[in-house]
Amino acid sequence: MEEPLLATANNCLDHQGSSSEVAETSSSSSSLLTWEVISSEIKKVAYIAMPMVVTTVSQYMLRVISVMMIGHLGELSLSGAAIATSLTNVTGFSLLLGMASALETLCGQAYGARRYQLMGSYTYGAIISLLLVCIPISILWIFTEKLLILIGQDPLISHEAGIYSICLIPTLFPYAILQLLIRYLLTQSLIYPMLLSSVAALVFHIPVSWILIYKFEFGSAGAALGIGLSYWLNVILLGIYVKYASSCEKTRIVFSKDVFPSIREFFRFGIPSAVMICLQWWSYELAILLSGLLPNPQLETSVLTICFVVASLHYYIPYSFSTGASTRVSNELGAGHAEAARLAAWLATFLAVIEVVCASTILFCCRSILGYAFSDEKEVVDYVKELAPILSLSIMADCLATMFSGVARGVGWQRLAAYVNLGAFYLCGIPLACVLAFVFHWNGKGLWIGLATAALLQSCMLMMITFFTDWQNQARSARKRVFERRPQLTIE
């Protein structure tokens, strides 16, 4: 587990968290921004980010592999799974992921302030909260087919999507718990247990999905069931580690009287966190749903889904760097180290920019063969090749936006970031996408250009907010928030 960056500031970690100590720490820290300090911070961010790349990509690959297997069943099956994935992401997975991100602020700052018992209370309360949220989501998914027909989707595609959505219901509950356990461990820089459990779940998922889809001939329903089984395996492995590992002894997730006020505080940050993430996620899903209204909807939906899968797969790489930034920023703010938090934010962004330039170049060079990973149809492959240059540019904009969103989670200004996402995507990006697709008849290309424009605007606004952030004030606010809480006795 990583300690706060600047050892010279450790004297401010008493249990008062005064504003004068934060200011004094920031002043002394500014004089210590040498290459040794920068190098140390890069190593700490990389220590979190590099294993998190494998962790997040492994978890996301569960759904990617399922979509790839479904794609080889036929265009109708792929279109149905694509529409179902869009709807379930909009109404379920994005909401749970967004709310779980509140722990990056709460647990991260509590860990930096060494209020370890609060971390267990926050996590326990969050698990109760998200499991309750899963119930109405499950009920909604039962009516997916009727909902899609109601909004004008093709009946055949809607039927396939309805089956897939119902079979995804068992994945909701382990997904919710998994996202919370990840953030509980992440804020303590306990990365490798997550890495090992995620890789194990992925290795388990591939043969199980193949057997369910092809051997038992369950089709898309088998793909959904395979995802659920893999998520449960991941949760079980992490649960065993959290319960018995000595590294989690101080922050153990147990029930206490402090859990109930933690639920209230979790929703205080969880709701704006969900809004912040969902507004961006929903815009991409909305584009896929709109593609179903274009001429030749099966082709447009399939190609837009492939582009979205590729963009999402890469997204988890800068997202891993953003989790490193979020963890380091929240830990340092909780400890009262304003200058160290600022340094962590910008160095993590620098590392992510280097990666995205390399990734965009590789993607552009492989544009001719990219489509074959998802479909054998030449029409689909050629369309993916046509969209690849725009896709390469959009993931560069997404990278910057993702990084600064991680800083927002670490600081705790999710509400402000939500307003940014609302303006970038729904006042600019989506209207532009609709005009290009339906007025100028650019079809799927027009939809994706609109999304890329929104991501660029989002990244510029978040970068300016980060640049003008008063880090000393944020450190004082974090310390005040953590030390307002009083630990309760644990109920064994």
List the helices and strands and how they pair.
Layout: H1 19-30, H2 35-71, H3 75-100, H4 102-112, H5 116-142, H6 144-150, H7 155-186, H8 192-215, H9 220-244, H10 259-291, H11 297-335, H12 338-365, H13 378-411, H14 414-439, H15 443-467, H16 471-483
Provide structural commentary:
With 492 residues, the protein is mostly helical. 81% of the residues lie in helices and 0% in strands. The chain has one domain. It has 16 helices and no strands. Helix 2 packs across helix 12, helix 3 packs antiparallel against helix 10 (259-291) and helix 7 packs parallel to helix 9 (220-244). The chain is globular, with a radius of gyration of 22 Å. The model is unreliable at 1-32 and 487-492 (pLDDT under 50). Its main location: membrane. It is a multi-pass membrane protein. GO terms for molecular function: antiporter activity; xenobiotic transmembrane transporter activity.
Uncertain segments are 1-32, 487-492
Tell me the series of helices and strands, N- to C-terminal: HHHHHHHHHHHHHHHH
Distance between the termini: 26 Å
Number of helices: 16
Determine Rg (CA atoms, Å): 22 Å
Count of strand segments: 0
Structural class: mainly alpha
Mean pLDDT: 85
Largest sheet: none
In short:
This protein is mainly alpha-helical and 492 residues long. The chain has helices spanning 19-30, 35-71, 75-100, 102-112, 116-142, 144-150, 155-186, 192-215, 220-244, 259-291, 297-335, 338-365, 378-411, 414-439, 443-467, 471-483.
List keywords for this structure.
single chain, disordered C terminus, disordered N terminus, 492 residues, 16 helices, mainly alpha
